[in-house]
## 1
Amino acid sequence: MKVLPSEVYIKVSGTILDDGKYLIKTCTGLVNLAHENLDTQFHVIMGGGARVDALRKSFRENRMSLVKTWRDLTGETLEPRYAAHWLAIQEMEKNGKVVQELFEPVGNLNMETGIKYQLQQADTVPESWDVTSDSIIYWLAVHESKSNERDPIIILLKPVDGVLCPHDRKSWKERRDEKITGSLCPVVHIKKDGTIHPRLHAYPFDRHISHLVLEYGIPFYIVNVRLPWRINGILKEPDEPQTPCTKVSRLPNEFAHVKKTT
């Protein structure tokens, strides 16, 4: 029998906050997951969702307003892109506190709500729109995991089943719609030069996380946020998950003789 991983880091898409029915189902699913795997510690962060989408809109239309908002909150004046970055993380933490109230208390399920402080202290994460909650959960897994025996499992719960190879030429915005059909790619590889295979117009993860995968060599998995119980299939067989998802990893043969960065 395989030994379950000791630590799992999960990013929950902020889009789930817009649908009360599925929000409760997702929270219940995560609580059940924790109950079913009591030897595993689950760390969760929330994505920004509509709150951060509003910040992106403000950044495009009047970015100096974000400078003022940050200055009013902290007394500190930052360049617009830096102010936008930290305001976005603050909104993620707010989302986390909202969802935390919906979790039944379970000792091995923890909502991470102090990520802004951790990132500011580390000062190693780029302050850019290329860095979203996707990269942040990966960074937390690498830097906060207490297990030295095995890598943490990193899960991105998204409003899609995984990376889809579309059956048509629709835009990425349209392909994010659950009604759009496509073939699920069970494995996606990141090459040394940063290119991703298969080549698609866009991917359901941020740009910076590819650099983290290349640096640390730990894969991550994309799972449908409305079906969190699928995570069990990854925990049981992380090399070849027995569940609909996409595993994103380095291209194995390019790194056969490369030691993992620690």
Note: The radius of gyration is 18 Å.
## 2
Amino acid sequence: MNFKCYISGLSDNTLNFNLCAPRSLNLGQTRQLQDLGVNKNYIKWRHTGAKDRGIEGFTLIELVVVVFIIGISSSIIFMSIGKGLLSREKGIVKEFYRGLLSARSFSIGSGRPVSFLIYSERREFGREDNEPHPIPEDVEIRGEDVEEYDDGIHAITFFPDGSSTGGIIYVLLPDGKEYEIDVSKFFGRIEVH
């Protein structure tokens, strides 16, 4: 059994020392130390832990805190990346919705009919008096009850009283998700499903 001895000073030309023993020292070992001439008042009971042996490390609390911080940070990062991907995919759907809403608002505000056009051959869409937006190659657009404005051009026309010619536009994204943009005939209400 190894013990650490600490010299505490000199008194009357006698060297005094304190003996630090581990907590597991039993009564027999204490007597052995006393037989060697160690006064029992000088035996200090001391637990020798990792720091006494020169081993350093992290406590369990420190490790739990670090793992917690890493977990929270990674979840925030993954959520923001996921939202970015989701918003990029839904961008075309949002553009269709905004274009339809713009055509309806402009019709009511100007007092004249305004059409939202989909150019199937050129793969573009937009309000008739605005610059059209491109439709990405990997996105499929289909329509139901949407009137054909001209050859290869489909339209939903909004009227100043708020009504429209109506129809449903289906937007199929590359990942297989399909969105339905429903335009009501009587009220011109636009809903995305």
Note: The radius of gyration is 41 Å.
